[in-house]
Amino acid sequence: MKLILLILMVTLLLVKVTQAMYCWNKLGKCQTTCKDSEVFYILCRDETKCCVNPKHVPVKTRSLNATGRLETSGV
After folding, report:
1. φ/ψ bin of 60: left (φ > 0), alpha (ψ from -120 to 50), beta (otherwise)
2. Per-residue model confidence as pLDDT tens for the chain (75 residues)
3. Which residue of 29, 35, 51, 53 has the fewest C-beta atoms within 10 A of its own C-beta?
4. Where do the TM regions start and end (predicted)?
5. At 59, phi and psi to the nearest 5?
6. Please, which residues bridge with residue 70 across strands?
7. 12-35 exposure pattern, b = at least 16 Cβ within 10 A, e = fewer
8. Short-list 12, 13, 16, 25, CA closest to 53
């Protein structure tokens, strides 16, 4: 009986630990390292990385001028 109780406790703890925390409006997951297909954009509450698919991350784009350099806007 004690063995069954021990197995049940360990199983419940593993389920609790392995649950993924979501971030970025539930489009990302809090992980210590991101997969190759994901990018790190912000930190989660527990200071892990919020790994998000790149198509969901807003990107500020800059245009190139005729010489191939980035244009500066009013600086």
Report:
1. beta
2. 888 888 888 877 766 555 568 888 888 999 888 899 998 878 888 888 999 988 887 766 555 555 656 565 555
3. 35
4. none
5. -125, 130
6. 64
7. eeeeeeeeeeebbeeebbbbeebe
8. 25
